[in-house]
Known about the structure:
The chain is of the alpha/beta class.
Amino acid sequence: MCGIFGCIIREGEAVKLITDGLKRLEYRGYDSTGVATIQNGQMSIRKDKGRIEEVVSNLRILDMEGQIGLGHTRWATHGAPSMENAHPHTDSNESIALIHNGVIENYLELKDELLEKGHIFKSRTDTEVIPHLIEEEMKNDIGLQEAMLRVLRRLRGSYALVVLSTHEPDRIFVARNESPLVLGISDNGTFCASDVPALLPYTNQVTYLRNGEMAVMEIDGYQILKISDETRVGRETQEITWSPEMAEKQGYKHYMLKEIYEQPNSLKDGLRLQERYLDLLTQFLDRGKEVFLVAAGTSFHSCLAGSYILSKIARITSIPVVSSEFMERYGSTVGIDSVVLTVSQSGETYDTLKAIDQARMRAATVLGITNTVGSTLTRVSRAYLIQQSGPEIGVAATKTFTSQVLVLAQMALRLAKSRGKLSQDELDELDEKLQKVPDWVEESLEKLADPIEKLAESIMDEELFVFLGRGISSATALEARLKVLEITYVPSLAYPAGESKHGPISIIEDGVTCVFVCPQGETRPHIVGSIMEMKSRGARIISICEEGDSDIIRLSDQVIEMPKGIPEVLSPIVYIAPMQLLAYKLAVMKGLDPDMPRNLAKSVTVP
Ligand code: AGP
């Protein structure tokens, strides 16, 4: 998604903070860069297609003067990456500069109206209609704030907007609907950004703008008001405990590697969640006649694993659903007796928020698990829980996956207890195993770093991977596949191993690499059969199994041996860690950037 940064400061040049702020948002994915500043009432704008470093250097952006400005990194939704389509966009006489993250759904009708009035457009973006609409409104002898409010009431769609204008050279105007926007304040001035990491070096006092709100930023602070009726909104700032370093790489080559190795700590934090939040969510879950687990991407894989855990530990049937399919599949059947537990690292995923809208409209109870304080998901959920993974900057989700499954496992244990589904001994044993999860992950990552490096070297030229698992390990296989697919771009399949004979096995031939996830447990005998099936057709067998599992080791060409004693029902949390590392190593060996895979964004806030 687009990166947004704006500031009004007492000391220093705005452009330095803007470019640094945009760099901390690079993980959001982008194709163009642009900056606008005002100095002595004069606007200057420099922008182009390309990465921040090259545009900053080619256009000498750091020469731009002024202590007020904004910057943008664009992730194209309308119009190809080009200088003309890069933000900021302006009105006819470049007195208004505007940057935007989101999608204006009614921009074509607005554009037609402006074209009839003689406006000329330089870009093919939806965004460019907005400064021209503001220009039109200001012809009614009203100020910029009023003009902006009128325009905002006409827009349909999602936006995080930042407006700079020579009409009001000491103010920045921001507005939000669905696309995230956070405000910050310090002794040196005020700031706005699409995400917290961009603000952290300047302040940890932040306020999240909410849907349908606008704010006017000045050097001493900001005032929030509702777009609908201009009522003023009083809101406490929140202190973000993440230090800038936490959001930086801390010596690792990539954020993804740092975040893989952060998992022992993030899982320990996950085991220290506030009891009352876990209990509250569990109580709501317990009351549902039907339970949906709704999420996208990796978060969906957490839900898939969670559905096995809820079934096996708490004897609860839950329906994992991909967010973008929820409306079609259950939009007309979800109802007052339904509980919809949504999982989203960013808390801003468009598809997940749309599923929530539908569920709420049908009077279902919506619960949320997210990693992002103040995100939209926290406000639209009846009850929510912050998974405490810490900032995850790498586009590929790693530690947030293991945290999410851990939360779902803790909820399942509470439900099993409240429903009397397990004996106290069984509960105690599972809880003891849960407490060991962080250590198992740490032990695996330490012991397997070299074997994984060697394994990656041996398969780096493969052109197809097939990941297979049975039962809960099918969720682990799907997540491992997604990691490899999204950062190495190697075509990869993943499905429940039992499905092979119903079609997919036709793709197996000499040398195709099959990766089997086979912890000790109920499904292990079946997975042996699946391995034999593939082996007999010439597949190369890589297995991740328990240390010393001689049958699996004998059948496999290469093995990843995991610590003993990990219960199958908790295995996704631990078995995924070496697979994350394998995907990372493969990407780096291929000369790819695992933090910013092509075509992807950290948070997909558009339909
Ligand atoms: C996973 O590595 C990807 N980053 C992507 O699939 C992601 O999990 C998905 O977009 C959902 O994001 P969310 O958890 O923020 O809702």
